[in-house]
Amino acid sequence: MKKTLTIIIFLIFQQLPNAAEVNVYSARKETLIKPLLDQFTRDTGIEANLVTGKADTFIKRLEIEGKNTPADILLTVDAARLVRAKEKGLFQEVISDALNKVIPNYFRDIDNHWFGLSLRSRVIVFAPDRVNKGELIDYLDLANSKWKGRICVRSSSNIYNQSLVASMIAHHGINKIEIWASRLVENFARPSKGGDRDQIKAVAIGVCDIALVNNYYLAGMLESSQEYETYAAKKVKLFWPDQNGHGAHVNISGAGVTKYAKNKEEAIQLLEYLVTDKAQQWYSDINYEYAVNPEIKNTAILGKWGVFKYDDLNLSLLGRYNRDAVLLMDRVGWK
Ligand code: FE
């Protein structure tokens, strides 16, 4: 009897049409994307399944899984990883007026393989009691000997630094940036360690006077429920680098549809959902990132920081120069 019942249930399941779904490999922390996916499910009825992990692991996994991959979308927090995935043939072209209309062309792939969804800027934070704002200029100036022993920045293994250096290679050439990087390392207050939040804390307690960090870490600390984080964040100020030149370096969180996506339609629907006004506003309000849609109004802290000039370098170049950047940082002893 029990066996018959099992067979009947099995047959019923066989008959049911598959519920619409989309499967996402995400290098974003779950808390920074899951609420949006849940909202997408509520609004569209499409189930969005999330697997969270490291971008490089997912890239390897997609290569190994090939046609059998369950993933429809790969989502990362850096353009260089998206470029790498494209070069390995892991994405497919997506034709979407909605995406092309909202996302400026320098924040998406020329062949429509990946799309920027939110922006983050790599900014300078400084201790206002030890640094006169007028002394700060741009990234190149961080090599000036006036900053000797005063700069904190995390390790060169971090993709945010790799992409910043890649953007500088794209603008100034490898020779100039190698000299710049070697002088920058001489200006470090300590060997690189910790994440961006740790650099902010180090400035706050006087280990260094300036640091390079992504803007949303400072915003997150200012809004933190941990008193020691808000205390540290309030001790530093934000400076937008290079406002009279290329503009502050920006990177994206972004995504592409995998080459062997089994739910391609749903995957495109999800990407389009992530650039709707509602989702773009969420990136700004909750993650303290900037919308890729320039029409979106920034609230609270981002609003207070005002409008800044950002570098509109085509982000594909962050991928193209990633290897050069990594090797260069290694040569100059940026640990
Ligand atoms: Fe981050």
General description of the model:
By secondary structure, this protein is of the alpha/beta class. Helices cover 44% and strands 14% of the residues. It contains 15 helices and nine strands. It has helices at 2-15, 34-44, 55-65, 79-87, 97-102, 159-172, 174-186, 196-204, 215-222, 227-234, 264-274, 277-287, 300-305, 316-320, 322-331; strands at residues 21-26, 47-52, 73-76, 115-126, 151-152, 210-214, 237-239, 250-257, 290-291. Strands 1, 2, 3, 4, 5, 6, 7, 8 and 9 form a nine-stranded mixed sheet that branches. Strand 1, helix 2 and strand 2 form a beta-alpha-beta unit. Helix 6 (159-172) packs across helix 7 (174-186) and helix 7 (174-186) crosses helix 15 (322-331). The N and C termini lie far apart (67 Å). Residues 9-16 have low confidence and may be disordered. Fe (iii) ion (FE) is lined by residues 77, 214.
Low-confidence stretches: 9-16
Mass-distribution shape? globular
User: How would a textbook summarize the main sheet?
Assistant: 9 strands, mixed
- Distinct compounds present: fe (iii) ion
Average pLDDT number: 94
Number of helical segments?
Answer: 15
Strand content: 5-15%
Reading the helices and strands in chain order gives: HEHEHEHHEEHHHEHHEEHHEHHH
